[in-house]
């Protein structure tokens, strides 16, 4: 709220009418609210503690975390879920650096996010005079985000926030850094002038219409395909062109393969889903259309044995970033534009003369799907003791099917890899996971943001190693009484808990944790519900009760410590030593 100052009339020496003033704190808040941003994720401290207090007083929701990286991960996921930049607020220097990891990850994943950090005064930083938490944060942030801005004058706050919003959501979304020196926040100016300095961003993410000849080229390539395949990436989920994407898939008759965060754009049990036949379709398809997906490591760069013979594929790619084309392989039909506009244009070109893919292709996919599903079903129904990944995820698979509106957060090594193929999704933007970098530690931040932004129940399925990165945030979940159920797959270590120290020394192996840890007791310590589950039935009962109650819950799911595999299904990324010591 604006401050009031009383001036004195120089001629009469009498008090004049109070003059309404504002300051940097309130201008930042007013600029965000003007642009319909009403939630901040962060960690309070010097020099931004009062910014959080004032924001809360002005009706904003301020969610305080225990560590800035997790606040940043929450802000990034908020951006993915809302198409508005999620806001992360941190202190200077170390706090900024903690948030920077999340900012870089948001940029890599194309999630709109703004990291706002307090900082030391420029005149001291530039002379390196040793200020409190002195650091040139703008210079450090620039290489790791889409844009970075510093504000030195209160009257520039409005335009700076507007530029940050536009940079975060326009084109290919990503992270933006906004540097606010401590002195800026206390700067005072007339309230009316401050109000006029604010900017309401108009059309922050304008449509980018594809060229007609590019659309015609893509359609021509599709029409010539004998074994076409559509790959849906998380960019397609972010675009919220759900109806048109489904219409394109169904009208064309082309099988589709969803990447993990695109699962649910069409239900995973849709007849055209090729998920259970992934290996077959990647190897045998002759034309592949990428919608919001990139030929990065998650798709083996479009190369290698999983893709069949070199040169056997023709690629169509829809992306808003022209530089993405030909990043790994030649893209025969690049379609540059926003996904909604591109898919809509393709739909218009699929007319009455369109020929569905040959039945030989679709029948082969169906046959492989049925074979793989049958092979897996017996594993999912196992009641083994202790549980393995299949039997535990089989129990959770049924729960998600019964609660398609709930949001699934998933991270780990084996826990992530198996869950991606076992747990089906039925609605878009209901699966949140490690994304493009495949990093650990996004779990609790994503769970908090999902609950705050959607109000829906959240099921976070965590490997015990992954949970360790952000586990303290269960206190945050309890503090805000969020409807989050965390399931920790506890197999006593990274990949497995059976490794031994090869030297025979007293230290445990580098991948082994404390045996039989009780993560459920951590949740109880903060007033939440803790459950120890050793069978699929116990796991199912505990999760159902948690999802029904909406109470913060952690289920310690005991998994056979021998069940894991090295690096899940991407163990080939670990280089192999060719040297042996004798």
Question: What report would you give on this structure?
Answer:
The structure is a single chain. By secondary structure, the protein is of the alpha/beta class. The protein has three domains: 3-197, Rossmann fold, CATH 3.40.50; 212-366, TPP-binding domain (Rossmann fold), CATH 3.40.50; 381-558, Thiamin diphosphate (ThDP)-binding fold, Pyr/PP domains (Rossmann fold, 3-Layer(aba) Sandwich). Helices cover 38% and strands 16% of the residues. A six-stranded parallel beta sheet has the order 4-3-5-6-8-7, with helices on both faces. A six-stranded parallel beta sheet has the order 16-15-17-18-20-19, with helices on both faces. It is globular and about 80 Å long. The N and C termini lie far apart (73 Å). The relative contact order is 0.09. Mean pLDDT is 93; it is low at 4-8.
């Amino acid at each position: 709220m604006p401050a009031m100052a009383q001036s004195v009339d120089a001629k009469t020496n009498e008090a004049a009418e109070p003059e309404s003033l504002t300051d940097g704190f309130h201008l930042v808040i007013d600029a965000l609210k003007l642009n319909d941003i009403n939630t901040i994720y962060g960690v309070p401290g010097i020099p931004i503690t009062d910014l959080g207090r004032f924001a809360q007083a002005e009706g904003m929701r301020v969610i305080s975390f225990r560590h800035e990286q997790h606040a940043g991960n929450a802000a990034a996921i908020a951006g993915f879920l809302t198409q508005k930049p999620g806001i992360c607020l941190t202190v200077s220097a170390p706090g900024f650096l903690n948030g920077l990891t999340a900012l870089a990850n948001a940029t890599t994943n194309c999630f709109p996010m703004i990291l706002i950090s307090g900082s030391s005064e420029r005149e001291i930083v530039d002379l390196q005079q040793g200020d409190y938490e002195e650091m040139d944060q703008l210079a450090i942030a620039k290489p790791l985000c889409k844009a970075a801005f510093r504000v030195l004058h209160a009257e520039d706050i409005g335009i700076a926030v507007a530029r940050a919003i536009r940079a975060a959501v326009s084109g290919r979304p990503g992270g933006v850094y906004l540097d606010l020196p401590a002195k800026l926040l206390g700067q005072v100016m007339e309230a009316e002038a401050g109000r006029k300095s604010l900017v309401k961003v108009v059309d922050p993410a304008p449509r980018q219409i594809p060229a007609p000849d590019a659309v015609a080229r893509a359609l021509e390539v599709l029409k010539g395909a004998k074994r076409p395949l559509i790959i849906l990436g998380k960019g397609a989920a972010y675009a919220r062109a759900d109806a048109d994407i489904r219409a394109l898939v169904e009208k064309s008759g082309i099988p589709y393969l969803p990447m993990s965060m695109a699962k649910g754009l069409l239900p995973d049990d849709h007849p055209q889903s090729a998920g259970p036949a992934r290996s077959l379709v990647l190897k045998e398809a002759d034309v592949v259309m990428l919608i919001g997906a990139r030929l990065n490591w998650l798709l083996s760069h479009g190369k290698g044995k999983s893709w069949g013979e070199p040169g056997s594929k023709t690629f169509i790619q829809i992306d808003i970033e022209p530089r993405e084309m030909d990043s790994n392989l030649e893209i025969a039909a690049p379609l540059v534009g926003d996904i909604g506009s591109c898919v809509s244009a393709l739909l218009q070109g699929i007319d009455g003369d369109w020929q569905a893919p040959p039945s030989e292709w679709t029948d082969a996919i169906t046959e492989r799907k049925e074979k793989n599903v049958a092979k897996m079903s017996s594993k999912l129904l196992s009641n083994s003791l202790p549980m393995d990944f299949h039997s535990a995820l089989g129990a959770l698979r049924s729960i998600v099917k019964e609660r398609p509106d709930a949001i699934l957060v998933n991270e780990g090594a084996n826990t992530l890899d198996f869950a991606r193929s076992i747990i089906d999704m039925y609605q878009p933007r209901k699966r949140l996971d490690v994304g493009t970098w495949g990093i650990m530690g996004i779990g609790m931040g994503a769970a908090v943001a999902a609950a705050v932004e959607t109000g829906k129940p959240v099921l976070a399925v965590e490997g015990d190693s992954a949970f360790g990165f952000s586990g303290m945030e269960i206190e945050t979940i309890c503090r805000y009484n969020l409807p989050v159920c965390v399931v920790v797959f506890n197999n006593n270590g990274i990949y497995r808990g059976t490794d031994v120290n090869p030297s025979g020394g007293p230290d445990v192996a580098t991948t082994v944790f404390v045996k039989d840890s009780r993560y459920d007791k951590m949740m109880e310590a903060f007033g939440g519900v803790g459950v120890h589950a050793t069978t699929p039935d116990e796991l199912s009962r505990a999760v159902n009760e948690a999802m029904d109650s909406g109470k913060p819950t952690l289920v310690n799911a005991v998994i056979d410590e021998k069940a894991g595999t090295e690096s899940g299904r991407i163990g080939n990324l670990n280089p192999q030593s060719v040297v042996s010591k004798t």
